[in-house]
Amino acid sequence: MPEFIIVNPQAEKHIALIQLNRSKELNALNLQLMQELRDALKELDNNDEVRAIIITGNEKAFAAGADIKQMAGKSAIDMLNIDQFSTWDQIKKTKKPLIAAVCGFALGGGCELMMHCDLIVASETARIGQPEIKIGVMPGAGGTQRLTRAVGKALAMEVVLTGRFLTAEEALKAGLINKIVPNEMCLREAFALAKNIAAQSPVAVKLAKEAVLAAFNTSLDEGLILERKNFYLCFASEDQKEGMNAFIEKRTPDFKGK
Question: What is the per-residue pLDDT across 137-195, written as a single tens digit (0 to 9) for each?
Fold first, then answer.
């Protein structure tokens, strides 16, 4: 059983919930927690009953950064040999939609983990940032790249070079998160999004997620080629036949993920 996360593969029908569970440390992301998260996501990704995955923390913190105590005395060669980012590389390969429910602090590695998710629901208490500069380092798990792609150069430079936190309102205005809700509604709203996604064709959802993410790594022409291939691939699924027939027959489709 994992020590630092709580996993419920059927929190609701077709929806899995992962809760980061180092409350005394504000869910600081130590190596073991990240490995447990990686393993849990891999297992849920292979579970045909799961169609969407929510990651959350607690009311005080989604995750307040990496575990600095594990890194403070390390050398560059130590960090190279530990290769902690290989775990992050596996997490980003998750094919099913990831939804972050963020209350309180999402800082450093916590912000980077949040940005690994496909949709982000934040509470009014959310404080988001990359404050690594204040301890003599910089983001290393994608913070400089994902934040810049999400909010643009000017704001990313300000956040990364000064270490200041964004409020939920600033994050929403910058396009970093999807919506803001009251603290007590954060997880409920994440489930509402997940339920909506889980009602769609799992085949089409995976292919659509792949195509959207490709927009960050390819030229327009390359992205359009992938989009069209994935569009055609949908027609190899039973879900496509069910979805289109249900539309014609004016009924709700019953997608099976096949």
Answer: 999 999 999 999 999 999 999 999 999 999 999 999 999 999 999 999 999 999 999 99
C-alpha 135/C-alpha 207 separation (Å) is 40
Catalytic annotation, residues: 66, 109, 112, 132
202-248 has CATH 1.10.12.10 classification:
yes
Closest CA to 111 of 126, 96, 97, 123: 126
Residue with tokens 């190596």: 31
**Cα 232 to Cα 237: distance, rounded to the nearest angstrom:** 10
Q: Per-residue b/e over 89-108, b at no fewer than 16 CB within 10 Å?
A: ebbeebebbbbbbbbbbbbb
CATH architecture of the domain with range 5-198? Alpha-Beta Complex (3.90)
Bin 42: left if φ > 0, else alpha if -120 < ψ < 50, else beta.
alpha
Ordered by start, the domain boundaries in the chain are 5-198, 202-248
